[in-house]
Amino acid sequence: MLEPRTGQTPAALDGYLERAREYARGAKAESTWRAYRSDWVHFHEWCRAQGREALPAEPATVAAYLVFMADVARARVSTIQRRVSAISQAHRAAGAEPPPTTDWTVRQVLRGIRRDRKEAPEQKSPLLPADLRRLIGGLELTGLRGVRDRALLLLGFAGAFRRSELAALDWDDVQERPEGLAIRLRWSKTDPEGEGEIRGVPRGGHAESCPVLALHAWRDTSGLASGPLFRGLSRHGALLTDRLSDRGVARAVQRAARLAGLEPDRYAGHSLRAGLATAAAEGRAPGWVIRRQTGHRSDRMLERYIRSGRLFVDNAVSYTDL
Length: 322
Fold this sequence. Notes:
Layout: H1 10-25, H2 30-50, H3 59-72, H4 77-93, H5 104-117, H6 129-137, H7 144-158, H8 163-168, E1 174-177, E2 180-185, E3 197-202, H9 211-222, E4 231-233, E5 239-243, H10 246-259, H11 270-282, H12 287-294, H13 299-309
Antiparallel strand pairs: 1-2, 2-3, 4-5
């Protein structure tokens, strides 16, 4: 065991504690903390209006809040589940253990809400190659925004990147190879410890939809060769120094859908990743090949994309005389 150094000042210890808090915050994505903060504010305000204590909260208070969310606010089950997580995290951060969310009554109320609602998960439509080409064709390529968004869309699809992963990429993460691009993914949702992986993005068969050529065009047009791979743009299309946010990725997808005449609310950043998985399944790619690109750990996690992509592949009806 390391012994404390003699003469260590309180200021040094305070610095270590602050770094410890930073490391703890880094255990989850910033988007997750933003959602938790918003959820906690909602719970805190509800408790104040009801004359209840929010921290530490009684299990009965949390159970009543879940009923309010389900029956009065008519929130989706996914939203209610996230609020439960936020309440749990707030109590753990404050040292209020065990959090009230572990109480039997709270867990049974949540289970009952799930059974009563039987909601299908809200999913955005996958962007399949035909629609993706339609989006690319609708972009205005005379300015930075269109050139950037084309590279963003094609790289997001071909690399099956999550929007947070796309936003986190730097130019230093991209290595040119004869076959395409080798992109270093420093961390991901399934790799929170940051062990990293290299993901291959091959050249496309058509110049207009080749992710490699699209990224070259973005590099040449923007003049960038270091720092964030994708940066934000001002309202007037001027290049900013800040990294494009994960929300910016989603907005780019929806903006391109709108320009292409598609319904923008059907699509989001996840549509690119889902589109690659679905299209690959449609093309009879084995599950392990799709997993290698998407980073999914099992076919079970891929099942909804595989089922969607293979609805009419080896369909039982095709073996009949209908």
